[in-house]
Amino acid sequence: MYIYVDILIITSIYANFFLLKTTARLVHSYLKNGKCIFAAAIGSIFSLVILLPELNTLLLLIIRILSAALMIVMAFSGRTPKELYRIGLIFFFVSFIFAGIEYGISVLSGGKNMIWHNSVLYVNISLLTLVISTIISYAAISFFRFYIDNGNSSDEKYTVTVTRNGRTVSFTAVSDTGNNLTDVFTGRPVIVCGKNYLSEIFEPQELEEVLSAEKNVHDWRLIPFSTISSGGMLPVFKPSSVIIKDPETRIRRSADVYIGVVNRDMEYAVFNPKIL
After folding, report:
1. CA dist 180 → 111, 135, 249 (Å)
2. Which SS3 state, helix, strand or coil, does residue 181 take?
């Protein structure tokens, strides 16, 4: 069986992109497509070891770890070493699930179009098979994410630090499973807070304009919400970064979320514990 380098690189970039995006979803961390593609492309270079003579197992392990570490650092740059370590563990978990499902599909299809050499699996498969294996993998991992989310505790208080356009504000938030507000287009959860928290990062007139408008304003957007007693459209914005800190354990986590603002003061902001 021949190995086509172009197919090897393209499928490797596709797989790496999927692995990085799925990892970002599991840790609720924002990942730009440009950075993800670049990191995936760099990681695909390591797949060329399949063309080399058989290498030592220890050397292959080192190469695999370096490859994954490089992709994680490039894709999730700006995170603390502790966060990168946690993301790296999740990345290896996702890779294990995806590789197992892809290998299983290949075996069921006869296994004639695959080569396993130097810890690299080359599969000369159709685009349809690759897409199917991706869908199955994503469904399995999403189920795991759902299970983990529902197991998180609630009613704990945290410190949330929001940065937007170089301005930063911190406030207290409560984790509450009752806040299930999520943007249907991006899947990002929403932290709901009162307008009193945002005076340090927004000009008063801009905030009032947004809260009184019935359409998208500036870099804000409106998403529908409903409660037991009311419903409507909630203005939300995507900050530059959101850090959630547990005051007791001092653990800090970055979160890929929207900030939703209600037109009143609130004692505490509210977010779903699945963000953690």
Report:
1. 44, 25, 25
2. coil
H or E, element range at 149: helix 127-150
Q: Residue 72's pLDDT band (boundaries 50, 70, 90)?
A: very high
pLDDT number for residue 106: 63
Residue by residue, DSSP assigns 16-76 as HHHHHHHHHHHTT----HHHHHHHHHHHHGGGGGGGSSPPPHHHHHHHHHHHHHHHHHHHT
pTM as predicted? 0.57
Of 79-88, 97-106, 185-194, 234-243, highest mean pLDDT: 234-243
Encoded amino acid at 164, one letter: R
Q: Which of 14-28, 100-114, 189-203 has the lowest mean pLDDT?
A: 100-114
Which residue type does 27 have?
V
List all residues 6 or more positions away from 59 whose beta carbon is below 8 Å from its beta carbon: none
Q: What's the half-sphere exposure (Cβ side, CA atoms, 13 Å) at 132?
A: 11
Token look-up 């007791």 returns 248
Are 176 and 190 in contact, with CB atoms under 8 Å apart? no
Buried-exposed string 86-104: b where 16+ CB fall within 10 A, e elsewhere? ebbebbeebbebbeebbbe
Question: Are 237 and 258 spatial neighbours (Cβ–Cβ below 8 Å)?
Answer: yes
Alpha helices in 81-216 (DSSP H): 81-108, 127-150, 204-212
Asked whether 172 and 242 are in contact (CB, 8 A), the reply is no
Q: What is the CATH number of domain 157-275?
A: 2.40.70
pLDDT of residue 157: 84
Q: Is the pLDDT of residue 214 over 80?
A: no
Residue with tokens 């207290």: 172
**How is the chain split into domains, by residue range?**
5-150, 157-275
